[in-house]
Amino acid sequence: MSVWYPSIDQARQVVLADHAADARPQVREITRVLRTQTEPLLVASLLTTCSLLPKALGVLRAAVDALANHGTGAVSDYNAVEATFVLVVIFTALLAVQAGSWTVELLKKRRSAPQ
User: Fold this and answer.
1) What is residue 71's predicted lDDT score, i.e. its pLDDT?
2) For 113, which DSSP code?
3) What is the per-residue DSSP string for 11-35?
4) Residue 53: which pLDDT band, with cuts at 50, 70 and 90?
5) Cα–Cα 20 to 30 A to 6, which of 12, 55, 60, 86?
6) Is the pLDDT of residue 1 over 80?
């Protein structure tokens, strides 16, 4: 994402020309960023989140059960790998939200271009 961010941000900042012929290169660039960056990032982050979410929810449920059964003593007996796994799922979900936001923004910008 850090490699793509400058071009995504540049596409987001584009002010479209008033005439269709003048706006065509800008619309092509927005379309390129959508197809090669924001949409693939959105799909990859959604698929990752959705495929890992059931296991992450199971880990969270087990953690809540351990807290309910053993109180705060369960905190010192946590599994660092499982905790990291849950954080990864949270971060991929946040990435999906951000990529979705950029995708929607660029789609609206492209639709607003003069015909």
Assistant:
1) 86
2) S
3) HHH----SSHHHHHHHHHHHHHHII
4) very high
5) 86
6) no
| Residue 29, pLDDT above cutoff 90 | yes
> What's the confidence (pLDDT) of residue 8?
96
Distance CA 78, CA 7 (A): 41
Transcribe 27-64 into DSSP letters.
HHHHHHHIIIIIHHHHHHHHHHHHHHHHHHHHHHHHHH
Q: Which 3-state string (H, E, C) describes 72-101?
A: HHHHHHCCHHHHHHHHHHHHHHHHHHHHHH
How sure is the predictor about 112, in pLDDT bands with cuts at 50, 70 and 90? very high
- How many other C-beta atoms are found inside a 10 Å radius of the C-beta of residue 42? 21
Phi/psi of residue 79, nearest 5 degrees: -100, 115
- Measured at the alpha carbon of residue 80, what is the angle toward residues 76 and 82, in degrees to the nearest 5? 115
Q: CB-hemisphere CA count at 13 Å for 85?
A: 16
